[in-house]
Input
Amino acid sequence: MANTLGTSQRPSRRKLSLRRDSSVGSAEREIERVFGLPKGSVQLINPNHRKARSDKLVGTLVVDWGW
Output
């Protein structure tokens, strides 16, 4: 049976995968773009609950969170 509702509203996990060598700022913009959110609505935070700098690398943020 064909999907009558069209494509899924949420992107697959692979479309949202971010590279570890990309910046937090570009990651925030990509998340907003993929999910159709307004500009400035996504903020990635450090373990101390402060906003991560936009020039910080995603890989460093992941290490800081202990993943």
The helical segments are 13-16, 24-35, 58-65. The CA atoms of residues 33 and 62 lie 21 Å apart.
